[in-house]
Structure formats: structure tokens, C-alpha cells
User: Fold these one by one.
Assistant:
Number 1:
Amino acid sequence: MDNQEKQAVNQPKKTGRGGKRPGAGRPKGTSKLYAFRADKEVAAYLDRQENKTDFIKECIIRQMEAVKSQKEEEILSQFGEVIPG
């Protein structure tokens, strides 16, 4: 028995059908997919947008900024009223 035959005996039998390999496949992304149902009016409006994904993301970002701004104003109002002099 030569050296190659000994190595083959010591290794598990391979099926030759691929399988999971380190580094193979598509890398995981940082985004998450969402799906929702829209009524007719919302669906019609959304369908008129050139890029629906960008439109939805921009709407959400604007809402997040508005909420953040409102919270900041509430925090500042706790310190009292500012009277310009």
C-alpha cells in the first residue's frame, strides 16, 4: 500500500456532490426584507412612484427624523422657556 492509498483510507469517503464549503455562497447582507399589504388608495399612490423602495425608505427616514426632533424639543422644554433679548 503506497502513501496515497493510506491517506485515502484515513479520510472519510467523499460523494463528489459539492456541499457546504467555507467562503462559498452569497455573503449575508445588512438589510432585511419586509412585505406589507396596502389598500387601493395607498397602492395606487405607491405604484406612481418611480422607485418604490427609495420612496418608502425616504418616508420612514423623514418620520424617524420628525420623532427625534419632537423628542429633543420635549427635552429642551423641560428646562423652561427661552425669551429672546
Number 2:
Amino acid sequence: MLGAAGIMASQLDAGESTEQLGPHFPAKAKRVIHLFMNGGPYQGDLFDPKPALAKFAGTKPAGADLLTERPTGGLLPSPFKFRQCGESGLPVSELLPQLS
């Protein structure tokens, strides 16, 4: 099997690369704004209230007593309040007052 891969490697190098073919269609965009927002808020604090997490707040998760792990604290729900917003009723956190 490895011998066949070595023989076929020379044929793979001889083929056209995708870089030479160009794009599939002409680009329409003239400019791009790329936002890399490292360290943004956790989605659970914005759009996902997790009521079960609030129910078990302070309890230790199953399997948290491993000997190879540092001491694990209890479960911690989002400290922010949520309310239903828009026609869909999507829960949105108080962290986004313009959306909620």
C-alpha cells in the first residue's frame, strides 16, 4: 500500500493545482469589513438562559470528583436577567439593551 502511494505521488505533483484555476465566479464585493471580536461575551449570557443550570446552581457536576483534577466549584448560572423579545419570543439578555 505504501509503495503505491510513493508511485502515485509523482503523478499528483504533475497535476494542476487549484490556485492556477482561479475562482469559480467573478467577485462582486469591492471591500470587506472583517470583525475579529476576541473575548466577546459568552452566548449563554446573551441568548441562552439555560434554566436547568439555574435550577442546579451551586451543586457539583457529575464526575467533578476526579483525583487528577483540581477542585471544581459548583455550577454557576448566568447572573444576567433575560426577557422574551420580538415576534419569535427569543430570550435576550440585559447585556444587549438595544436588542431586547
Number 3:
Amino acid sequence: MEWFQDEKMVSKESWADIDFERSLLRHQRDLSIYRVLTSKERPASGEIRELVSLLKRLFTEERKAAEPIPKKIHQIWLGHNPPEDYKKWMESWKRLPGFTYHLWTDADIATFPLQNRALYEAADNPGAKSDIARYEILYREGGIYTDADTECFHPDKLTALCENLSFFAGIEPLCQALGIWIGNSIIGAQPLSPIMKRVVDALPADYPKQAKSPVYVTGPAYFSHQIKAMLREGGTPAGTVIFPTTVFYPHTKNEVLTAAKEQGVLQTPPETICAHYYGKSWHKMSINTLKRASNPSYPSFEKALQHSKREREAYKFLAHPLHREKEKHAERLTKLQDLYHRLGKAQASSSIPKIIHQIESVSFTPSALSYIASWMGMKGFSYRLWSKEELFAEIPGLRDIPNEKKMDFAKFSLLLRYGGIYAEANLFCYDEVFFDEITNRVGFFAGLEPLAEAKGLVISPLLIGAESGLPLLELALKRMKTEGVTGSKALSEAFFDEKDARYERVVFPPSFFYPFDRVDLEHLARANNTPTIPPECAALRAYYPAYKKRVIL
């Protein structure tokens, strides 16, 4: 497993010289999330800014603690023996000079006087059990707790932390946590630490109020909540430091998985003391996780168009002999079918720039932030989150467009100038390989809205890929300005009116990007059923109340 670290990247630079902001905002993706979280229009933006300011102040002020942290390393492993990968990482902690090492097993914890013994015994997830135990072990004995899927690089720096601090932890990557989360995978604390006492004492009261995932019940979300509350109250002892991201959490889970898959090298910053690899030996798949259908092959256009009962009924209605626009629908359907079936046969003659565009919204919910994070992390793609100020500066005449049409006008304008993929914030990237391949094959792609919802063959403007300078987008923008039509109507009419285009283009059936309409999801929610995602699905749309009101640019 030598792909994990490039030792040449690690220097003996002092941790005291770390730039807090640079470490916190590791990449453009982290900066984009931070900008969303601290947008002035967001109600909680002031709290986020205040918290970051407080954490930076703790980081830069005098750190000397009255009582040092004992030089003890605690790790926990419950159940069977650790896998070989874990043993390698655990060895990096066992050999630290001047430190004692204790691996806590089921038998050890069975005899340890846990204050929250009832919660520990009731927990059915090893991760939750480990969380409960680590807090109490640190409170009673002090030392450093670290997960088994972490690796230590600099024992000398750990020694300095123990000799100067009373408590330390680190901030997880913003683009992964989608907020300021203080990780609980690496914690240092003196015995009887008031911070650890609060974490231990508050657990029974908070436990039944939280969601079922260990992350929220006992893990980093719970841990962060207690520490942030104590920081705001001013009750932390001297020598408390919450380190910025790259000290303990230099990589996201996706970055680690990509390196493992490709046998690549993770470029670790010089300030990294130890790193977390997100092994998740305790993780269980949620019963609410969406299921993917087993058939891996792409369907015919007709099958994908009629992939559900509601879509089949809507299709029959459009094809009915008495439908007033039957001939127009038939002509357009033939064009869509021809382009779709030609896609796999034609030589690639076009390509779309590998950049993802999204537009900042004051209606971003925590769920929406997780959706935009799925686009930020796409391998091989750059990412741009546009603010309204940037859009007004970039797009002449945008202020004159009616509010309800500004978003579509802006996205068409961005793609016309820069090319790339525009993805609405309520879309989740479900298959990034699909987008990597399709951008190499065509000069334009989009998807049909669900027939039952659109009542016709309507091209959705929520997810579009395009070369820069496409006449199709110029025509759509012109129609929006001169005719005052919506973005979906302007895009649809421009696409179907275009003749003899010299680039490959395709509009995918609804099952690729919009497999469920609003009614489908409401029925599933009421029945408490889990929807099955079609095998061809590459993106998923969610319906949240926050999106009912369009963003006013």
C-alpha cells in the first residue's frame, strides 16, 4: 500500500508556521463551499465567520498549557483482527519514541468503568461503540486517541503538541463535511479535560434526539457540536487548539479512494503530522440508500422514454391520434431517436470542456451542499461556483432579464462563452464516468424532462453540456430576450429548429438524468419505499422545499 504517501512531500517544517486559511481552504472546492456557507444572504453565515475567527485566534495565540498531555497512544479495535492495511498504519503509532501504546479490544472495554455503559451496550454499530469508548478513555487517562485507519509521520511534532497543549483536534475538509466539522479520529487531551467531560456528560441527553447514523449520534457531528458550543461559551482551558485541515485531515475520502483505485500517490502537505484514510470498517449501508437496477446495459430510446408507468401513460397520450400536436411530437421524437442511436456508431468529432459550472444560491440546504459536492469532486474536471456578483459582471444585460428567467439566461450565457457542463444545485452526480465519456463524444447534451411532468418533449435546462460558441445557445438566448419565453422552451425550440449541425449532439431520455418526477417521489415517500434507479441513470434530481422559490439574482 505504498501509494498512500510520497515521503518527499513531507518536510520537518514547524507546525507553528502553518497558514490557517491556506490549510483550511485546501482546494478550490473547499473555497467554494466556504463561500456558500459565509454568503451574506445565508442566515447562519455570521456564525460560521465568527467560528472560523475564533478557531484562528486559538490557533495563533499563546498555546502553553498548565498541564501537559500524557504521551500515551490509544487505539480501539472491536471484533476480529484488523486487516493487513490497518496493521501497517497501526505500526506507525506503536513505534513512537517516548510514547506508550494501548490497543483497546472488546475485552479491555468490558472491564473499563464506562459512565455511558448503557449506551455502549445498546449501540449496534462498532463505530458508535468506539466513539463512546474513546471519549471516556481520553477523559479518564488522557493521551492521544487515533483511529486505526490513520498514519503518523512526525513523532517529534506529536511530542511538541503533548508538551505544550491541553487539548487538540482538527477540522475535516470543508468540501467533505460541508461545514466546520471537528474530526474525532485524532484527539489529544489531558486527563479530566473539561472539554472531554462535556462530550461524555452530554451524550445521554443528546443521544435520542439525533439521527440514526453514528456520524451524527456519537461521531464528528456530535463531537463538533459540543466543542463549538464550549468554544463560544469561552470555557476552553489554556492550550486548546483546533488545527486547520491539512494537519490531520489532508485528504478527503474520495481522494483516498481514487489513489487506492489507481495505485497513485497522495500529495501530502509538509505540515501534515498524521493522516486519516477513512477506512470505515464500521460503516453499514443505510436502508434508505437508493438501489440501482442490476442490468448494466443502456436501453433503447423508446424503453428509456417509457421507463415507468406514469411515463408510459404520458407517452400514449402524446401519441394519441386525437392529440392536436401528434405530428410535431412524432417528428421531434424521430430526431431524438436518430441522434441517440447514432451516438454509439459515429466517430467522435466534438468535445466539451471538462469544467463544471454551478450558480450560488441563497437556498442551499445541507442536502443541496452534499449535491454540489458530488460535482466538485469529479476527477479530471475543474469546477466553478459562480456568485451573483460575478454573473452580473460577466453577462451584459443580465440585470434586464426578468427574475424568473435570470438563472436560465445566465447558464446559457456561461456555456456559450466557456463551454463545459452546467448542473443545477439540486442534481446529484451519480455516475461521473458517464460524464467523462460523453464530454469526449459530443458537442452538446441535455436530457428530456419527465413526460408526465412536462406534458410533452421538453428539454430540461437543469443539466447541459456544450462546446463554447454553439449557435444553438445563441438562438436560445435570443428567444429568451426577444420572445420572453422560458429557458426550457427556448432551449427546446432552438434544438429542434437547428438543421445540419456540424457537431455531435444528443438529448437523453428522462431516465438518464430525471428518472423520478415530483409525484413519483411523493408516492414513494408516503409508502416508505426505496426507489430503484435505472442502470443508465447518471444524475439524480431531488425536490426540496428550498427550491420552490427561484433564486433572485
Number 4:
Amino acid sequence: MNTPQDTNLCTFDTLKRKVALQNQGEDIALLDTAYELANQAYRGRTVAGGRPLLQHCLNVACILAEYPLDPQTIAAGLLHELLPSNRGTAELKKLLGDELFEMLELLSSLNVLRFSKDEKEQAQQLRQMFIAMARKVHTIVVKLANRLEIMRHLDLFPEQEREAYALETMEIFAPLAHRLGLSQMKSEIEDLAFKWTSPAEYAYLRDSVQALATEREETLQLSIREIKKLCRDNGVDIHITGRQKHYYSMYKKMLRQGIQVSELFDILAVRIIVETEEQCYRVLSLLHTNWTPVPGTFDDYIQEPKDNGYQSLHTVVVGPNKLPVEAQIRTWEMHQTAEYGVAAHWAYKEEVGGGRVADTAATWIRRVVDHGSETTDPRHFLEQITLDPFEDKVFVLTPKGRVVTLPKGATPVDAAYRIHTEIGHRCIGAMVNGRIATLDTPLHNGDVIEIKTSKTPRPSRDWLQFVRSAGARQKIRTWFKQSNRVENIAQGKEMLQHELDRAGLRRKDLIDRIGLQDSLKITNLKTENDLYAAIGCGDINVEGVVNRIRKKYRDLLQVEERDKPVTRAAPSVRRKKKDVIVDGLSDVLVNFSKCCCPLPGDAIVGQVSSGKGIYIHRANCETLKKTPKEKSPLVSVQWGGEAFKSAYLAHIVIHSLNSAEILHQIMAAVSGAKMQISNMQSKVLKDLSRLTNLWVEVTDAGQAADIVSRINRLDDVISAQRKI
């Protein structure tokens, strides 16, 4: 994610160049006037972290300049902190013009808003914002740009303010940006808020995605080249790029589908842009014809656009190296709408209009305002604003009829914390629709939820494994963080050891050397006790720490593997004479060597053994290479026609971590290939890794190669190969 930091601050010259590109042929002299005013009015004023207010406003204006907005809206971003008292009202209005002055008046009224934690007050403040939006939607785009600039520098704010800003951004501003179709802005502010509301999940996902993306970059570039060639050869001109990855959307997908990072399709993702709608379907046909589509992954948002106007074709195909590649296919006009939302359709110097997306947004804004004027309960107004068909929310009721809005999949614990922090801390049970329910029970629309509480607060760390709302997760973590550090250290150490045991990582000297030190560097913690405490209170995901240790351990063992030959005899197998043809000889006894277990399809050679006939070896057999040729001469042999009709034993040697699930995973991989295991022998080595010898019934070398490939894809497998 590319977010400007203090190393590349926006300057006024940069701003003017950006605005000139977006507004070719228009008079942008208004920006000079606005900058002069801002320079005078903001002199000596600062924002969080001691940054000059002028620089903050320049950054906001530069964010707006990335969108196809008119100079008045950009100038409003530059002047959004300007108070009317800085100049006489009439003079300022004459200097800036009626339109810009009206925007500044609206922004001035919105600048005093600071969203309360109380739902009733928050709803009243949101109503004020939407009334301003109904008058001029551009003002809210300025507010969104302002919020994005704040989130980019949130590390400069006090810790308590960081949490409040992040939760407010996730619950109000991100859904608002999505409703207006501002996908770039929405994705970035969501990711930045996610970083602070769920730091452990964010760090784990960021590290995992970056590692996978690095591993798969070659495949991504190969996919892009092949798609370019495929379309060019079929007369379709395309623009194709790798698609930017957004951590929060991936996180939601993982929760929704119950999958791991490695199972996400959009780690490898491309965006294809064409000229016409007809070409969108042409490219889709080419992809589905030449690559295998993944069932259930095709969505046609061209014929059925999303409520915010988004249009594209989505599909997932099996690309190079048998890895899934997600593709979005759209026209340039659809791309403008997807990236810039209502801003892509505004006619300069007009109110909302000029396109279906803008009309949809305007209708939604007016409907929300009308709803707000009809209801006597401001909280209903809040629900109307945050309701979003793509955010997957559920609405449950308390016994007194209060509506509680929660993310889809939320549990009674989420509801308890949403009602009140202390109710969450004291939660010990729940009744859903009059029946006792476990605390991890998923809630559904219309459920009546009653929370049972104790006299003393007793949150459980286990709750962090199933709560769905950022607010609940943050409050649970804060409670444990503020409790006894000694208890957190002990709990964290126990949690880490438990996960290490499950992963088969128990060599403390190795773990200390390659695992914990690496985790300390990544998390900016100073001591192991700091790490244990952070795990214990939930600030750091213990699985993320173990995954880093596992990777280091696996990498080290892979290096050692290169110099460590594996030797074990395979069981003897007798074959029919017709399986192998021996050149120049007939009616000869044929034996299959047990050192390399040759299979039909392998290159083979015969070794003459006095009194025992011919032994068949793989041509690259290590044992054969060490046998003197004069004692056992070689003869030319080839597979007979009957060979491919028989069953053979493939000997596979597997070196893996000693995790609890590894043997089950190996058997599942073989079963997935529709093969049967004849024999399995496994033992733990001195370095606590595991060595497994596997004999599988196959018909040829191709089937054996498929099984080896499946086993090598398992996370805990260091190496798997046929015995040579």
C-alpha cells in the first residue's frame, strides 16, 4: 500500500501541476488566491505531532487532486481550516466566489464535529453531516480526504486518540467512502484503521501476504505476459496490471470463508482494462477457454452493478504453476467509476449529476436525510447510514427493544461490548431468542439477545479467537494489557509453548536463536518478556510468531537437507516378464530392484546378476552408479506393453516438521489423488524433525510425481521426493 509519508510531502508547485493535469484548459488561478490566504491564516498553527497546519492542508488538497475534481473543491481542501473570522464575510465571499465560499461555510460547521461514543449523540452529529452533504456532496469528499491525511499520520497522535480515530474511521468514514464509490480512498483508510484497531491481525496478515506475494511475483508476471499474448493473438488490445492488495478486505474474506492466507485467490490478482463492454466478455471467454476457471468464482457486475455503481467482471482461473489468478475485467469508463466513484461523474460547477453513479449517491443521501427527519430516534438514523449491502451487517435486539448493529458472524460477546464495555467485561453467558447459547454462537438478523453478567469483570483471552467486531477485540486487549504484567508474561509464555508443541518446534536453543529474536525485530519489542506479555494480553498473534519461527526452522533444515542423503530399502516387488523387454534376451528372470523402485515411464536400465537374472533399475539410481560395471554388466531394457496395466509401489521419502497434523495431512494428500498407501514408516530425528517413508500403489511415474507434488505443497513439509 503506497501511502505518502513525511519524506515526500506535497508542495504547492506539486499541487498546481496535479490540478492542471486534471483540469486542462480551465483557469486554476483560484489556487494561487487560496494558497495566499492559507499561508496567512495558518501561520504559526500546528496539528498533531507539531506538523504545520499549512502542510496538513496542502496534503489534503493533493489527495483531492488525484481525483477528477474542479479547482473549487481542491481549493476547499486547502482552506478547510479557514475560519470566517479571518476576513470579513463579504470580502472573503467576493475574493473566493459564491460556490467556494458556500463549501467553506459548510466545512466550518462540520469542523466542530467530534463524534461521540454515545450512539445518540453520534447519530445527531452524523445527521448534521448528511444535511451538509445534501447541500453539496463535494464537502464530504473534502472531509474524507482530511480523514485520510489524518490516518496517514496517526502514529503522531496520543495513543488514546489513535484508538478513537481508528474505530470512528472504520465505522463511519470507510462505509461512507464506499457508498460514494471512492474505492481507492475507502481501501486505504480501512487498511490504516485496521492497523490500529487490530494490530496483531494486521501485522500477521501483512507479513504473510508480503511473503506470499514475493514468492508468487514471478508467477504473477508470467500470468500478465501470457494474458497479454493471448489477447494480442486474438486481436484484443488490453491494459493489464497487477492489482493492489488491501489487507482489510482480505481479512474480512478470511473470516467470512473460514480460510487461511495461502488460500486467498487475490494474492495473485490482475486488472484488465479494455475499450468496450463487448471486449470485456471477449477477454473473459479467452481466459476461460485457455485456462481452467475455478467453479463458483465468476461474478458479472456489468449486467448487475453494485449499489454504488461499480461494474466489472470477476473470475478466478488456474494460471501458470497451477496457482489461482483472480482477474477483474472492465472498460476504461467502468475503471474511472470504480476508482473515483461520484467524482468521476460530477459535471464541474454543478451539484450531483452527470451519471448513474452520482444519481445513485444523491438519491441515497436524500433518502437518509428524509429518514432522519421522520424518525424520533437518532439511533435509527445511525443504522440507516452505516447500513451497507457489502459490509455484511446483522441487526439484533435487546430484551427492551434496542437495536444493536454488528458485523455478520458476530457473537453474544460482540453484542455485549457493543451495548457497554463493562457488560462485555462481565459477560458470562447469553440467551438468544429465549434459549441458552454459547458465547461463540453466530447471531442473525432479528435475534433477541440477553447478556448474563457476573459481579466482577472476567474477560477471556479465548474470546479473541471468535469476536468479529474491531471494537470488542480492542476492548478485550486493552483490559488484559492493563491487568497484571506478570500474569500476562506467564500466560503468553504458556500460549507460545503450546503453539510450538503443536507445530513440533521444541528445541529451545534453536527457537531462541532463529525465532524469538526475529519476532522481536519485527514487533519492535526489546525483550522476550515484552513479547510474552504482548502475546498474553492479545496485542500480538501467537500464531504469527510461531509461523515466523516455523519458516526460519524450515529454511534451516532445507539447507541441511541438501547434504544429508536419505537411505532406506524398499520392500521387494516381483513383476511379470511382459512388464519389461530385455534386448537380445528371452525367457530371462526379471527382478525389480528395491533400492530405487522403478515405475513405468521412468528411464530404466538392466543389471545382470549371476544366477539371479536381470535387475531393473532407474537410470539415475544412486546404488547402480556405485556398482562396478565389470562385476554386474548393464543391458538395454524397455517397458513392455503390459507394464502400464499393472500396479507398482512408489517409494516416497518425506522430510517434515514434527507437527501434530503432518501424518494426517500426508495421508489426506494421497487420498486426494485417489491412491492407496501400502506402507508407511515414520520417526522423529535428533533435530526433532520427522522422516517418513511412504509406499503408494501407482500405475506409472506420472501418478507418483503428482503425489510428490501434492505432498510438497503442505506447509510443514521440508522436502518430498521419490527414493533414488
